[in-house]
Design brief:
7 helices; alpha/beta; elongated; 5-stranded mixed sheet; 41% helix
Amino acid sequence: MTVSFTVTQQQRLTELDVDPETTDSRFSSEEERNAAFLRIESDRVKQGRQKIKQLLYVIAQRVPFTPNIKDLAETIEVSRKSLLNYLLFLEKAQLLNLLQQDVSGLRTLSKPEKIYLNNTNLVYALEKEKPDIGNLRETFFFNQLKVVGKVTSSKRADFTVDDKYTFEVGGKNKGHEQIVGMENAYLALDNLEYGFANKIPLWLFGMLY
């Protein structure tokens, strides 16, 4: 007589992205089965930690970028499902900010439109080269606004806030070209001391906490 993994154990192995053949294994006793389960779970958790560290490093060298989930999964050698889970884990740990499309419902559970590190301190700590100023500006804006509103991607500009306000982030000489003709559209500009018209100093968004 042989035994298989319990339903609870099988669910856990599926969460860990263990292959079906292993999940359907048979054992001569409950003791052998439980020992095998603990060994597989421990190995998978250790591997997952290493993969998450590798993913964070890879992302840090590319941010902000629109991810190709297939290519990213192949780079760190994990499945698409595991990669999406790792991204969510890193976001919950406040290491990443995932910019989703301006949609509602289940589609928001798919790949993010753009990936940012959570804050500018992480940008300086993790990037090997001198950080891009545009990345720093957008990272700062996203980090500050998501605390007080829903931030999603915009088809024409950088961000949409609360499905109503559109923001383009840049330096003080940034023009209106990308938001011309749009209602409730603003420029969030670095190195600007005072705001006027639809131009808002970027530093002001740091007062939202």
